[in-house]
Amino acid sequence: MTLASEEFAEQVAPLRPGLLLHCYRMLGSSHDAEDAVQETLLRGWRGVDRFEGRSSLRTWLYSVATNVCLREIERRGRRLVPVDLGPAADPTDGLGAPLTETAWLGPLPDAGLTWGSTPAEAVYEQREAVELAFIAALQHLPSLQRAVLVLRDVLAFSAAETAEILDTTVASVTSALARARGSVRAVLPERSQQEVLREVGDRQVRATVAAFMAAWERNDVDAVVALLADDVEMTMPPYAEWYRGRASVAAFLAEVPLSAGRRWRVEPTMANGQPAMAFSAWDDTIGAFLSHGLSVLTFGPGGVTGFTTFLEPWVVRT
Q1: Of 19, 65, 178, 232, whose CB count within 10 A is highest?
Q2: Would you state the pLDDT for residue 52?
Q3: Distance between CA 27 and CA 78 in Å, rounded?
Q4: How far apart are CA 221 and CA 216, in angstroms?
Q5: CB-based contacts of 264: which residues, under 8 Å, 6+ apart?
Q6: Taking the complete model, does pTM exceed 0.70, yes or no?
Q7: What is the DSSP letter of 206?
Q8: Residue 98 carries which DSSP code?
Q9: pLDDT level of residue 224 (50, 70, 90 thresholds)
Q10: What does the domain layout of the chain look like in residue ranges?
Q11: What pLDDT, on a 0 to 100 scale, did the predictor assign at position 54?
């Protein structure tokens, strides 16, 4: 099968959004996922003359992408979240230095994403399969199990197709899938964020996010904390410290981000299929608001149960 460059580009264009989501699920980093997609398409174009049409172009490209991701996982290892590094911190101890050399799990901003329909045989919805809890759970799986779970339960490839993609046997795929399912179910919440958000309803979600942003911009710690569940967890990679419970989160907010004199601008957005907020902090030297980070909210009984802020090391201020 020989394709001209224009024909190849035309045929792979509809597959690119799905490949990006696939690579993000495998790698836990939107930046690495973009690089993996670029490498996949480059390898695909260079090897298109060897593509004999024994499988679909989609299956072939997902095979290339999966193997690109597996090599990256072998090189970098799994990506971490702060709770992987130790117990919840005491806010009175202050923050240590950011761990800029750690491979942290990163967010997937929804802007520009195209969501495909969920295959009928899939176990997880497309948005469920990029939620922070799901991506964090995948990071704990050995690379083969991770690939098998994503290919089978998210993309709904058959066991035979998955075995072909991974150059292994159907028996190995079946065994790896059983182990992966057990490991993931043991750490995932009982209900996905998509289920919770549907139950809460769009109007209430928007109202909560709006109230959160307004309270943050006026440095109102009490108003922010009132929106949080009793067992809320707050994390801020690249910092190792994380806080559990409203009292600890309130103490940290009052001492650091919402202390007197801090000025913020907050905009609503979405990331990982969840409500999120983009933060900008005022810089007196420059006289402008500078991008500070992206916070992803996780909803649950009693309010916001997760407050995960992804900070770029070079704009972090304490």
Answers
A1: 65
A2: 56
A3: 8
A4: 7
A5: 216, 217, 219, 257, 279, 280, 281, 282, 292
A6: yes
A7: H
A8: -
A9: very high
A10: 78-131+192-318
A11: 58
* Cα of 293 vs its chain's centroid, Å: 15
Note the pLDDT tens digit of each residue in 36-61. 999 999 988 776 666 555 568 888 89
- pLDDT tens for 234-253 read 999 999 999 999 999 999 99
Kindly list the distances between the CA atom of residue 4 and the CA atoms of 48, 53, 59, 62, 178, in Å, as whole numbers in the listed order. 9, 15, 20, 20, 42
Report d(CA 95, CA 90) in Å as an integer.
Answer: 10
DSSP code of residue 204:
H
Three-class SS of residue 92? helix
CA 186 to chain centre: 19
Residues 6+ apart with CB under 8 A from 301: 229
Residue with tokens 């028996």: 171
Query: Which token pair is 252?
Result: 């940290």
Query: Over 123-177, what HEC string results?
Result: CCCCCHHHCHHHHHHHHCCCHHHHHHHHHHHHCCCCHHHHHHHHCCCHHHHHHHH
* Confidence category of residue 317, pLDDT binned at 50, 70, 90: very low
Q: CA 202, 207, 210, 211: dihedral to nearest 10 degrees?
A: -150
Structure tokens at 251: 């103490």
CATH topology of domain 78-131+192-318: Nuclear Transport Factor 2; Chain: A, (3.10.450)
Per-residue pLDDT tens digits for 291-314: 999 999 999 989 999 999 999 744
Nearest CA to 110 out of 290, 245, 294, 252 is that of: 294
Helix (H, G, I), strand (E, B) or coil at 182: helix
